[in-house]
Design goal:
The complex is a heterodimer of chains A (208) and B (81). Chain A is mainly α. Chain A has helices at 9-17, 21-43, 45-62, 72-90, 97-100, 132-136, 139-151, 154-165, 170-177, 181-205. In chain A, helix 2 (21-43) packs across helix 4, helix 3 (45-62) crosses helix 4 and helix 7 packs antiparallel against helix 10. The longest helix of chain A has 25 residues, at 181-205. Chain A is elongated, with a radius of gyration of 20 Å. By secondary structure, chain B is mainly α. Chain B has helices spanning 4-9, 11-15, 21-33, 35-52, 63-80. The longest helix of chain B is centred in the middle third of the chain and has 18 residues, at 35-52. Chain B is elongated and about 70 Å long. Chain B starts with a helix and ends with a helix. The model of chain B has no long low-confidence stretch (mean pLDDT 91). The chains are: A mainly alpha (208), B mainly alpha (81).
C-alpha cells in the first residue's frame, strides 16, 4: 500500500485533486466505517449506506475547493453529517438523538447505586489488574471492549468513537451530531461508564 | 460537600479537565475524603486509556466495490446534468 495512516495530508489532498483513484480508494478504506457510524446515528440504518455514498460523491466533486481550514477528517465528518441531516429533513422524520439513547438501567449513575444522602450504596468493585499496559495485552478484554462498543446505543457509540478514539473536539462533535455540548458530554460519559462496568465484570469473571 | 453521586456524574468532565476551577477543587476535596470515589475515578481513567488504545475490529471495507459504485453514480449524475 502506497499510503500509511500517517502520510502527509497535503500530499494526499494533492493526489485526490489530481483524481488519483488509488488515493481515493485509500481514503474510502480509512473512513468508510466511521462515516457509516455517523450516518447511522443521525439518519438510521435504512438510509445510512445511501447517505455515505452521496457523501463520497460530494467529496469527489468538491475536493478541489477544500480550503484546509480544518483537517481532511473533520471536513469528511462535516460532509456526511450535512448529508445525513439533509436526508433526515427530506424524510421528515423527527427522531432526536436524545430520544434514541435513554439512561441505561443498572448503570453506575442509576439511583439504586446510591443511598438517600448520595453516597455509594456498595463499595466500588476492586480490580486485581489496574495496569493499562497489562490490560492492553489481554486479547479477551480487547474482544470484550469491541463487543461492548458495538452494542452501545447509536448516539453514545458515535459520540464515544469521535471523542475518545478519533480525538475530535467537543465543538466539532456538537456540529457533526447536531446536539448541544452538554448532551455530547452526557453521551460520552455514559459510554465510558458502560465500558467501565464491563471491565468490572471482566476483572471478576474473566469474561464480558 | 459534593455527594458521591454528584462526583460520579461529573467524573468524565473532571478527567477531561472540563470543569470550572471551584468545581475542580470541590471534587478534589471529596476525593481526598472518599476512597470509593478515588477508586471510581481511577477505574474510569484506566477504562479511558485502555479503550482509547484498543484497535477497533471493524468489518473489512471493500473499497474497490465502493469506488466502482461511486464512479457509476458520478457518471450517471453527469449524464443527467
Amino acid at each position: 500500500m502506497a499510503h500509511s495512516t500517517t502520510m502527509d495530508e497535503n500530499v494526499l489532498i494533492a493526489q485526490l485533486i489530481t483524481g488519483d483513484d488509488k488515493a481515493f480508494r485509500w481514503l474510502i478504506s480509512q473512513y468508510q466505517s466511521l462515516l457509516l457510524n455517523i450516518a447511522r446515528t443521525i439518519v438510521g440504518d435504512v438510509f445510512a449506506d445511501e447517505v455515505v455514498q452521496e457523501s463520497w460523491v460530494s467529496v469527489y466533486k468538491n475536493i478541489a475547493s477544500f480550503e484546509r481550514r480544518s483537517s481532511l477528517k473533520t471536513w469528511l465528518l462535516t460532509i456526511v453529517s450535512n448529508q445525513a441531516k439533509a436526508r433526515l429533513r427530506k424524510e421528515s422524520r423527527t427522531v432526536s438523538l436524545e430520544q434514541l439513547d435513554g439512561e441505561t438501567p443498572g448503570s453506575y449513575l442509576d439511583s439504586t447505586h446510591f443511598k438517600q444522602d448520595g453516597h455509594w450504596q456498595n463499595p466500588i468493585p476492586h480490580w486485581d489488574n489496574e495496569s493499562p499496559e497489562a490490560l492492553l495485552e489481554e486479547k479477551q478484554l480487547q474482544h470484550c471492549i469491541a463487543k461492548t462498543l458495538m452494542l452501545l446505543p447509536p448516539a453514545q457509540k458515535t459520540a464515544f468513537i469521535l471523542r475518545d478514539m478519533e480525538q475530535q473536539s467537543f465543538e466539532d462533535i456538537c456540529t457533526i451530531l447536531d446536539v448541544s455540548a452538554a448532551n455530547v458530554r452526557v453521551l460520552v460519559h455514559r459510554a465510558r461508564l458502560t465500558l467501565m462496568q464491563m471491565i468490572d465484570r471482566y476483572q471478576e469473571t474473566g469474561s464480558c | 460537600m459534593l455527594s458521591c453521586k454528584q462526583v460520579a456524574t461529573v467524573a468524565s468532565q473532571y478527567l477531561d479537565k472540563d470543569v470550572s476551577t471551584p468545581l475542580k477543587w470541590q471534587i478534589r476535596w471529596h476525593l481526598m475524603m472518599c476512597a470509593n470515589c478515588r477508586r471510581f475515578m481511577r477505574h474510569l481513567r484506566i477504562t479511558q486509556t485502555v479503550t482509547r488504545m484498543t484497535p477497533l475490529t471493524q468489518t473489512p471495507v471493500d473499497s474497490e466495490k465502493i469506488w466502482e459504485e461511486l464512479q457509476q453514480k458520478i457518471k450517471q449524475e453527469s449524464r443527467q446534468e
